Amino acid sequence: MGLREEVETLNGEFSKAGSNHDLDGGMELYAPDAWLLPPNATLIQGKDGVRGFFQAMLDAGVRGVDLESITVEGTNELAVDIGRYRLTIDPPGGDTVTDEGKYIVVLKRQSDGKLRIAYDTFNSDQPAG
């Protein structure tokens, strides 16, 4: 399996976990010392903080996420994935909203041989406000 295919497989697992509200499955894709740089929030370091962020997103009504890699570059040990996302949010008491945006993810090969998300940042294509 090539690097791009490996990253796209991981993205498929991430999308499946998000759509199934499988927080544990999604967290398996992150390195233990992962960094998350979400929009309009402080830097989050470590898997526990990343878990808390994604739990809050699920609690806010996130119902699905689709990822599309535009480019994947790197080596066997380190990969960079730049792509687009589509996030479906069904907030309690509100109308369903779809957000589209872009992301950049850096993945590192772990001691078990699997690529895992080490650095993750994303932001919406929607204007601020």
Question: Can you walk me through this structure?
Answer:
The chain is of the alpha+beta class and 129 residues long. 27% of the residues lie in helices and 45% in strands. The protein has three helices and six strands. It has helices at 3-19, 23-27, 47-59; strands at residues 30-37, 44-45, 62-74, 78-89, 97-109, 115-124. It has a six-stranded mixed β-sheet with strand order 2-1-6-5-4-3, covered by helices on one side. A hairpin with a 3-residue loop joins strand 3 (62-74) and strand 4 (78-89). It starts with a helix and ends in a 5-residue tail after the last strand. 19% of the residues are buried.
Task: Please give a quick description of this structure.
This protein has 129 residues and is of the alpha+beta class. It is built from three helices and six strands, in the order H-H-E-E-H-E-E-E-E. The chain has helices at residues 3-19, 23-27, 47-59, and strands at residues 30-37, 44-45, 62-74, 78-89, 97-109, 115-124.
Amount of beta strand: 35-45%
Question: In angstroms, what is the radius of gyration?
Answer: 14 Å
What is the CA-CA span between the terminal residues? 43 Å
Low-confidence stretches: none
What is the H-and-E element order? HHEEHEEEE
In helices, the fraction of residues equals: 25-40%
Mean pLDDT: 95
Based on CA inertia axes, which overall geometry fits? Answer: globular
Largest sheet: 6 strands, mixed
Across the major sheet, the strand order is: 2-1-6-5-4-3
Counted beta strands: 6
Output the number of helix runs: 3
